[in-house]
Amino acid sequence: MAKASTHYDFIVIGAGAAGCLTAGRLVRDHGARVLLVEAGARDRNPLIHMPAGFVKLLTNRDYMTFHRSAEHAHLDGRQPSIPQGKVLGGGSSVNAMVYIRGQARDYDDWVSITGDESLNYRRLLPHFIRLEGNSTFNNAAHGINGPLKVSDGANLSDVSRAFVLAAQQTGLRFNADFNSGTQMGAGFYQTTTYRGRRCSGVDAFLAPVMGDPRLEIRTGTTVTRIVIEGNVARGIEVQSGSQREQIFGGQVILTAGALVTPKLLMLSGIGAAGELARLDIPVKADLPGVGENLQDHHEVPVVAFCKGRYGYFNQDRGWNQIRNGLQYLAFHNGPVASNAVEAGAFFNPDDASGAPSIQVFCLPTVYLDPDVTSTRATYGFTLNSCVMRPKSRGRVSLPTADPAATPIVYPNYLHHPDDLRLSIAGMRRAARIMRAGPLESMVEQIVLPDERALSDASVESDEALAEHCRRTVKTVYHPAGTARMGRDNDPMAVLHSDMTVRGIEGLRVFDTSSWPTIISGNTVATTYAVADRGVSRMMGETMPEEARKRDIESADPLLTYAT
């Protein structure tokens, strides 16, 4: 096996949101020599940069890895797919771009689990602020000068506008900003876009240093294991085509995502000793929490057909496609500038005044997935109900010691009865919204699930909706928690709260694997903030003064909730 002649200060594994930020910051702010390794290709496909293009990328195996889960007996034997981005930028290049930070209580949970007060929302807020370049809000809750561009959607469909009005008719207040005090209510999502163009981790953090000789990016390169000598991580083994190579560096940082990071840890001898021995992998650190604690947001659809030509059906065909393409090129708006998930709502079916437990995504299209539904393509829309703080826990494991083998993913959706109960409650609220305000005049028929079950509170109806959930539940592409932080006396903790791997020197995890629990909402904003915290802790940085000042001066209830 060849050995690289170049020695790097840092080796970053995985060029998703966390990896792009980590590599970019280390080069730009610390002058470090960094190798960033990505299994996928460069982000040259124009569809990546057009917000609406992600819909066509989610099924493209050139840019996605399809992690098939094990059979779920409680889901009638289904094996829900969990696709993840495999391209420079990772999920930040193929996601729906929704910018949500979660709730203060999410981060309070992290403090309770780790004992580290620096993980509360007030202490993480400066990281959110310094990264954010918001073109709409300029207040204590938001940053305006950061590299990650955040803006209002460049196009709002008739369905999205009607949804927000209809949701208010059901008792939800209008919320102009889901990130500045409370999530509760209905409104329009902000997105990681600027002038109708996606702002990925590549755009925000790699582009400014792309020409710097201290940064080397290797795409199309798969890491097969971390090289560990004694209890010290020295480098990595990689494969590109038929070529295998060992590369060495001062620190190794895992940012490969919550499905691949535990795989690489286990292949490198870090995991449950018994499981590693079964696969004949020499044990470097007996950490039984590796691969456990898998959490993922899951959603179930409520689908309606429309009486008229509402939504985005047929907008990518014929004359519509030509017109919309020209509009986008000329003005950076129109349907091509839509992220499809333009509007949404947060609510709590158990306590109208409590913290939200359900997130609804409004899609101005009929949801089509041959693995999930049998609906036809026509004018209509979908309201997806998502449980934000699921109690079900899954796992990631290795079938063999072969690095080329796909890990076995068992997300365990709906295993906890509260997750099923909340999913049903979310669907019922979605149906109420469909039959309220301006949406009522648009809807011809609710076709999925059975409308009678949605309006009837009987035991039979509950079971009918439960069966719909089991048949249609799917990922929201947010896996987390599989190499989590924890207290030093926590036997299932993989990381210390500074994100270093327990028992191994020179190895850190900065991606969503590190999260003790999943946050309430889309995950990319927190992915950036947590990785930024990781870099700051590793490099001994202090809180940026502007962010500190804005934080202290804020009187916003969310910002002062966790102290």
TrEMBL record:
Its cofactor is FAD. One of its GO terms (molecular function) is flavin adenine dinucleotide binding. FAD binds at residues 87, 95-98, 223. Residues 542-563 are annotated as: Disordered. Gene3D superfamilies: FAD/NAD(P)-binding domain, Glucose Oxidase, domain 3. Residues 85-108, 257-271 form the Glucose-methanol-choline oxidoreductase N-terminal domain. Keywords: FAD, Flavoprotein. PROSITE patterns: GMC_OXRED_1, GMC_OXRED_2, PROKAR_LIPOPROTEIN. It comes from the Bacteria. Belongs to the GMC oxidoreductase family. This is Choline dehydrogenase. It comes from Trinickia caryophylli (Paraburkholderia caryophylli).
